[in-house]
Amino acid sequence: MSLSDPLGDSTHFLSDDSEGEEAGPVQQEEEPVSGVSVTRARLTVAVLCYINLLNYMDRFTVAGVLPDIERYFGIDDGKSGLLQTVFVCSYMLLAPCFGYLGDRYNRKWIMSVGITFWSLVTLASSYTPQHYFWALLLTRGLVGVGEASYSTIAPTIIADLYVKEKRTIMLSFFYFAIPVGSGLGYIVGSSVDNAAGDWHWALRVTPGLGLLAVVLLLFVVKEPKRGAVEARPETHLHRTSWATDMKALSRNRSFMLSTFGFTAVAFVTGSLALWAPTFLYRAAIFTGEKPPCVSSKCDNSDSLYFGIVTCVSGVLGVASGVVVSRRLRKWTPRADPLVCAAGLLLSAPFLYLAIVFAQTSTVATYVFIFLGETFLSMNWAIVADILLYVVVPTRRATAEAFQIVLSHCLGDAGSPYLIGLVSDSLRERDSYMWQFRSLQVSLMLCSFVAVVGGGFFLATALFIEGDRGRAENYVPSDDEPIVVPRSGRSTKVPVASVLI
C-alpha cells in the first residue's frame, strides 16, 4: 500500500485510526467523543507542553552563550545573526510539508520522528571545531527540521481534545512554555557554560531531554479524532486538496490579518531573543560595570538575568492576556484581537525606553524590558486560539504551517540578521563604544515594528465575528474537490460525485 493513501484500510502505522481501539477489559470511564479519556487528554497536553518547553529552551541556548561563540569563531554581528536566521529559514520552509502531513496522517508518529532527528542534530552541533563555523550553521539549520514537525501539529491535537474555554486554558498552558523555555535557554546556557568552562556543553543538555520526550510521546500521547469534540467528526469533514485549502485560507481575512500581526511579534521577539543579552553585556562594558572579554571567557551573567526576566514576564504576560481576553469577551466578541493589539502597542514604548536607558541605568533597563516583554507575551495563546476557531479542523495544520512560514519569513527569519547588518553598517570604528552604540540604534527598529503589528490586530477585530461564524457553520460546497483514494493514489473529485 502506498503512503500516499491516507484513507486506506491497511494504513495502521500512519493513519489516524491506528489507535482507535485499545486491548483490555471493559473500561470504567466512558470514552469522550474525541476518542481520548479525560485523564489521557490532560497527560497529552502535559507532554506537549514539555516538548514545547524543550523546543524554545534549545532555540535560545545559543543566544545565552553568544559572546563566547563570537569570540570562539571570531565572527561579527552579521554572522552571529545568521545562527538564528538559518534555523528559522529551515523551520519555516519545512513547516508546510509537515502541515500537509499533519492534516492527513498520524500526528504522533510524525512528531516522534521529527523530535528524534532534532535531538541528534542538536547533539552533533555541540562538537563543532573552531575553524568550522559553517558546520555550526548547517547543524543549526537542520534543527529546524525537527521543530517544524512539532510546532505545526501540536496545537491541532489540543484543538481536537478541547473546545471553547477549556481549549483557551489548555493553549495558555501550552504557550506558557514559549517564554519559560526561552528564559530557561538563557539560564541553562549561561549556567552550564560557567560550570563547564566551555560553551559546547550548553548545547548538550536538551538532546537527552528530547529523547525522553519521544518516549513520552509514544507511550502517553494518543491521537484524537479530528473535529469530533466540535460535533463534526472526520467522517463528515472532507479533506480537500492543498490548493483548495490555501485558497480558502487566503480569503480568510481574520486569519491573514492576525498572521501579519503575529509576524510583528515574531520580528520583535526574534530580535530581542538573540541580541538582548549581548546588548546588555555591551552596555555593561560601555558603562564600565564589566570588563570586555578578549582572551578570557566572557561574563554571561546578563544572559542569566535576562532569562529570569523572560520567564517571569512571559508567564505573567500569557496569563494576563488569557484572563483579560476571557473577561472582555463578555462585553465584545472582538476581545481577542483587541487584547493582542493592546499588548503590542503597549510593549513598543517600554522596549524603546529599555534601549535608551541601557547607557545610564541597568536597573531601569531591566524594569522596562520586563514591562515590554510582559505586554508582548499577551499575544501567544490568543493568536493560536484565533487561528483554531476561524479555521475548520481539516485545515488547521495547514493553517499553522502557513502562519509559521509567513510570520517567520517576514519576522524572525531575517530580523536577527537584519539587526546585525544594521549594527555593522552603523559602526564607524571597531571600538567597544561603537559596538554598543550601533547595536543600540539598530534595536530601536523593534518598537516601530510593534506599532505596525498592533495596527494589523486592530484590523483583525473588524472581521473576526464573521469569519468565526463561517468556520463554525462550514459546509463543503458541491464544487469543492475532496481527496479520495483510487488505486492506491489520491485523486481529486467533486463532492457531488461521491455523495450519491
UniProtKB/TrEMBL annotation:
Residue intervals passing through the bilayer: 81-102, 109-127, 133-157, 169-189, 201-221, 255-276, 304-325, 337-358, 364-392, 442-464
Signal peptide feature range: none
GO terms for cellular component: lysosomal membrane
GO molecular-function terms, A-Z: transmembrane transporter activity
Biased composition (Acidic residues): 16-32
Catalytic activity from the UniProt record: a 1-O-(1Z-alkenyl)-sn-glycero-3-phosphocholine(out) + H(+)(out) = a 1-O-(1Z-alkenyl)-sn-glycero-3-phosphocholine(in) + H(+)(in); a 1-acyl-sn-glycero-3-phosphoethanolamine(out) + H(+)(out) = a 1-acyl-sn-glycero-3-phosphoethanolamine(in) + H(+)(in); a 1-acyl-sn-glycero-3-phosphocholine(out) + H(+)(out) = a 1-acyl-sn-glycero-3-phosphocholine(in) + H(+)(in); a 1-O-(1Z-alkenyl)-sn-glycero-3-phosphoethanolamine(out) + H(+)(out) = a 1-O-(1Z-alkenyl)-sn-glycero-3-phosphoethanolamine(in) + H(+)(in)
Major place of residence: membrane
Entry annotated with the keyword Glycosyltransferase: no
Entry-linked InterPro entries: MFS (IPR011701), MFS_dom (IPR020846), MFS_spinster-like (IPR044770), MFS_trans_sf (IPR036259)
Renumbered residue ranges of the record's region Disordered: 1-33
Protein name: Protein spinster homolog 1
Organism expressing this protein natively: Muraenolepis orangiensis
